[in-house]
Amino acid sequence: MSRRSPVIAVSDSELNELRSRLLHTRWPTTWPASGRNAGTDPGELRRLVTYWASGYDWRAHEAAINALPSHFADIDGTPVHYLRFDGEHPGSLPIVLTNGWPSSFLELTTLARRLATPSRYGGDAADAFTVIVPSLPGFAFSPQRPSLTDPTQTHEIWHRLMQDELGFEHYAAHGGDLGAGITSRLGEAHPEAVVGIHLMAIAGPVAYDPAGVTPEEQEYLDSVAAWSADEGGYLHQQSTRPLTLSYGLADSPTGLLAWIVEKYRAWSGGEGTLSSRFSDDFLLTQASLYWFTLTISTSFRPYYEYAQGLTKRVERVDVPTALALFPADLTQPPRSWAERTHHITRYTRMPRGGHFAAHEEPELLAHDLTEFFRAHR
After folding, report:
1. Nearest CA among 68, 110, 56, 133 for reference residue 277
2. What domain count does the chain have?
3. Structural domain containing residue 209
4. How far apart are CA 39 and CA 234, in angstroms?
5. Does residue 134 lie within any of the structural domains?
6. SS percent in the chain: helix, strand, coil, step 5
7. Which tens digit of pLDDT belongs to each residue from 165-224?
8. CATH code: domain of residue 119
9. CA atoms within 13 A of residue 300's CA, in its CB half-sphere
10. Is 346 exposed, middle or buried (0-12, 13-18, 19+ CB in 10 A)?
């Protein structure tokens, strides 16, 4: 059975240790000229580190996290943390939201509130969802899966949570990045329960005939290759040698912050300006969650498992699928490419936003979700 519980209580000694590590950062030798194309901007990082050490109020954010509607479920002996936002309307459609990397459940809370109580935001109460936001295994408050070869993959844990634990016979699902893959596998495996899925990203087909690729699809594939060459270093490292990386990031909060802040800047719709999309407190709370729960290493596991062939590839998803593409997100697949693997019934190119759309553009995302699932209630 699930239970409500405070989820985090950082001791004073842990907090003091973090501040000491930040204040005693061993900064690398500066280059003759700094450029963001080479990685995290040193001036921006120093400013954030200074604030994290001496101005940021973790206790206020800790209290806010503990005030969220957190629960824990036991799925085959593995605890799963999740938030539950009950819909304001009787019979609200249940939906499970899944984040990507380098994110956490916190990124989805604003979206969850909009979906659960649309009348507070100018919407119709009849469009309300009952929203479930689990923490991915190995992220924040959900322990990692016990084995690399554990046959119960994350999408199956989600189905057990939604149906066996929470009693939802039918439900919807949404995800971006890692969450898009989990959501796709969920729809593929359980079409009898999943009424539809809403995605912000989509994987290519397991195999395809290059001779049958359209000019628009080839342009997309070329853009993916260019992105991989310029931005994909993190992906290659996390997929091939994640443990080597994890030692440094688990030991240095400055290194951890540098690793994830680079992605918040590069993948958002802020045109390279962090502050236009994310407050310092938001970024540092995300970093603090990774730090205090010691989960940066385990957050790399999905990349390694996929690269090692331990994660099931999506072959064909026949439940109704919506694809919402935000212009600053990592890739922009054409509809025809998405239709090779999914039953696409809604395809939307958003006017703004990026990889972290649930936080950047919750109104746009909530509207698209609402419009799509209205026909599937």
Report:
1. 110
2. 1
3. 67-217+311-376
4. 11
5. yes
6. 50, 15, 35
7. 999 999 999 999 999 999 999 999 999 999 999 999 999 999 999 999 999 999 999 999
8. 3.40.50.1820
9. 23
10. middle
